[in-house]
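Checklist before submission:
- one chain only
- standard amino acids only
- sequence pasted in full

Submission:
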Amino acid sequence: MMTTISDSLRTIDELDVGGRRVLLRADFNVPLRRPQSGGPIEVADDTRIRAALETIAELRGRGARLVLVSHLGRPKGVDPALSMRPVADRLEELTGAPVTLAPAVTGPDVQELTERLAPGDMLMLENIRYEPGETRNDPELVSALADLADVYVNDAFGTAHRAHASTEGITHRLPSAAGRLMEREVRTLEAIVERPDRPLVAILGGAKVSDKIGVVERFLELADVLCIGGAMGFPFLAAQGHTVGSSLCPPDDVESARRALAAAAGSRCRLELPIDLVLAPAELDGAARALDGVDVPDGWSGLDIGPRTGARYGAEIAAAGTVFWNGPMGRFELEQFAAGTRAVAEAVASTPARTVVGGGETVEAMRSFGLADRVTHLSTGGGATLEFLEGRELPGVHALMHTAVGAR
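Returned file contents:
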């Protein structure tokens, strides 16, 4: 029997954490906001923080001394606007336990704080992206991080497609394992690829075909039905000879779509494209209008799938055994273009199938419609989720496997 990635993954069951300093890599890259009434910056959406709570609670319950590390945004050096302070404050509220924010990522003062931790205590390092060596997987930063802990746990699946100091390099210096969220993400996505309940229906939306061409081609191999929506539908329609008006449709995306259409012609998977649309003037300075068809006139942009397409995709979802959805069907943040995404979201929430929703905007849509708790699994991965489904090796996952570089 073939050994799967999840079978090979080292988990926290294999780590002795009692009384030891555990460097826990979490994905706390959350949106921030400043309250209208003024006051300090705060977390706007704590989904990713909540996703880490299971691992945090288990490690604390086993007597670990937690050193939390994450990135937040993409600062170029130290940027107070992207400090981990709001994250530390929110984690403190969610756990009901103190969370100390370190003054930096590494250094003597941080080292001293880690040594003073008692079992169950939590210390959060400053934004790991403050350190330029993070994205370079710099050995000096890896060494400095290793000095802060005795063991390492990676629970940040959303960063697993990057070989950074805090996701891959550190595993060569400390005994390492996957946290519960990392473990669950791998098992859930692996099941889509290896053993889906059929029919497997994939819904892909968002902006660019070229960003998702790999996963499109992969689902043409794996899925029974692939439904395309959002702006990435227009290159497919253009490749079929339809007019797209001012809709988002880069020439290189048309070539990618043409390649996918050719692959679909010889595939067992049925490729579904929009059959009607919701349009707006190119400058968004007028009322939306429905189009019973897909040929967009000049001066107009398609910003949502139409009701017939939404119903058609909903019927496919209702008949599915497994559903994977990544990417909205339109500009759902604007009410006049939200109906298509809402139709898909409601179908996903209502189907008895196993449902996996991935991607920040897609998860945001499910939450905005009040349907997030009616999904089997909300993936925190984004790009990592798509790369895993494509079949690419994720450095942050590979580094935690028994067969990768030997057990540590």
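Reviewer check: Confidence is low (pLDDT under 50) at residues 404-408.
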